[in-house]
Amino acid sequence: MQQHTLSAFDADIEAMRSAILTMGGLAERQVTKAVQGVLSGDLKVIEDVIVDEAVLNQMHLQADGICNMILAKRAPFAADLREVIAAIHTIADIERIGDEAKKIALKARDLKAPLSNADLPLDEFHAMSENVRAMLHDALDAYLTHDTAQVDKLAAQDDAVDAARDRLHSLLIERVVQTAGEARMVLELVFIIQSLERIGDHAKNIAEYVASAVDGIDRRHQASGAQGQTAAAGA
Fold first, then answer.
1. β-bridge partners, 217
2. Which residues pair with 218 in a beta bridge?
3. Is the full-model pTM beyond 0.85?
């Protein structure tokens, strides 16, 4: 961690990092509970996700305010500026993860029955949801430790999640054709799977922001393992 001659600057950076990790922890719990709500139909768990989304929105505003304060008050440059910009992007992605978790919870509430009672490909669904949750956990850990090695790992995991989404979509479409009575439940699950895939995208984005902040490398819109372009120079 870079140390500054002005200790207040270090305190501001630490406050920013702490706010992001607190946000991330809540978003991770939301995702876990949202999937639990889909599988169990537990209305208390589902409502917790919806309530927590409003809390996450407030955290978003507070964390964004810290970032804006640092930009205005400290005038950071080079590595510090990259970290603040990466933090602003990270905050936005975490807030969107909360949005997707809420969407999943609302779909779970609309189902009015636990998905575990349905004759659907739940093993595949559970495996996909666990992969997405692990991606988010690893992305937040990468932010905490400034571990740029997570970028390629999460890009590969994101490809696997995309493949799982496509595979599940095919299975569910077949199920709609075969069993008209389950059509609504199947369609709701399609939307839930799409939200999970988007959460994986946001987790991958967070790891890419870490690389941008630490190494000045922009890894967005590149294939797994590709080398990025140097963004801002200086350390």
1. 230
2. 229
3. yes
